[in-house]
Amino acid sequence: MKTTTACPKTAIAKMLSEFWLPHLAACEDISKHLSYIDQSSREIKAAALKQNLLDYDNLLAKEVPQGWRFKEYRRRTLITLEGKITYMRRIYTEPSGICHAYLDEVLGIRTRRQLTPDAFLWVAKTAANMSFRKTADAFFSRTGVKISHWMVMNVVREEGCLILQELYDEMEKAKKAAPKDLPLSSEMLYVEFDGIHIPLQKNFHEPLKPRALYERNRQRHSFELKSAVAYAGKDSKKRRLGVVHLALDEQALLFWPLLSARIAQDYDLQDVHTLNASSDLAGWCKNHNLKESFPQAEINHFADPYHVNREVKRAFGNTKQASHIISLIYSRKVKKLIATITRVIKSANKGRERKRYVNLLSYLQTNIEMIRRGIRNNMGTMEGTNAHVYAARMKVWGGGWSRAGAQAMALIRARLASGKDLIAPKPDNVLFTDEQHRRRRRFAEAALRKPSWRAHESSGQGYEPPQARIALTTHMPAKYYGIINYS
Description:
- It is a single chain.
- By secondary structure, this protein is α+β, with helices and mostly antiparallel strands.
- It contains 18 helices and ten strands.
- It has helices at 9-27, 30-60, 102-107, 117-127, 132-143, 149-176, 211-216, 218-221, 252-264, 283-286, 305-316, 320-330, 334-347, 352-366, 368-373, 382-394, 403-417, 434-448; strands at 69-80, 83-93, 99-100, 188-199, 222-231, 233-234, 240-241, 244-248, 274-279, 298-303.
- The strands form three sheets. Strands 8-5-4-9-10 form a five-stranded mixed sheet, sandwiched between helices. Strands 1-2-3 form a three-stranded antiparallel sheet, with helices on both faces.
- Strand 9, helix 10 (283-286) and strand 10 (298-303) form a beta-alpha-beta unit.
- The protein is elongated.
- The relative contact order is 0.11.
């Protein structure tokens, strides 16, 4: 059954041409004929796949493991990109009472899942760019099969779990320090990280509020996704090379090891000698833990120019004085910078104007070490990354997310933006699961023990109860198979 034969494409194409020619001659319309070909091709492929499954089930019936007994036929429905397929397959039982759909287990068809791997990946990739309801409508237009937006949501969450599990597996590999071949290697790596606020789902309709009130209540109606991007540098057109994206709704202590694991999937961490980090100098960003994953690298943490410029313009506005302050920051003239702002504070009027200058001075003094190190003009792309990779899908007008759903969607979009394919669900082969091993062991132990009841012995005198005989039927619960002693 492992041998394969080449597909006779010429013969099949000629046969299909003879099959489609009468319709073309009857309609004499290329658009109608193309629609007819699309529909008939879908039906032909679905019928051929159904017949393949039936024929292969017949072949597997000759190679059933020893001791298995045929129980019944059961119906199974699969949703593929070619349409819905319903077929019958054999169900077998072990002596211990465990039931098997042998065809599903050999082919890796997942238990209680209708979507095949190709349909699963198509739904997850399409949902990354449009709403769940529109994805369900697009799937119906593509295949002619109706699915609910709840199924689309479950696909997105499952794909997010698969991506996150891959990161945890990469963390375990990093602890073992197993050698591996990686496509990228760079002595210098740029890493930028920032947070993006995602709106939470609400159970009530909230009227439109002014911007000031929205900003004041944002923390109650949203949560922060921690996002990061890493790349090896930029080309002549200022495009990033070897980009790696990641966004998670995790604590900071767990975010940094997962970020390092994501970078380790594409880069060799041992080759990195210089790591240039850039952030908005927020609390969790400033207290990063990248040194544990890059012990041999020199880590330089720079202030993101966008946020520094924003703080200056928030205090001085778009004035010549703001340009002068920004030039002092970029030239790293710290003493002159502090003296200039202090002089402005003394000459400012009391009230909001003076408060803005005091806040700017406090911000610069808190991050004085970053300013002394310098602000790199070739960094600071994190705001655009958040806007195009995450906000474009997850901050639509009137939309809201749960924390689990937002993290799953962010992981999918980050993986696609990094140029990597989505992860197909693992085949559900349940032949040798731990639960089945436990059931087989309990059955073997029960067979060694003496039965808990005995039939009444006949003495030939008085009333005797009738001798019970139990017939084996397919309606008997599977847990009693092989346990009851039949006389």
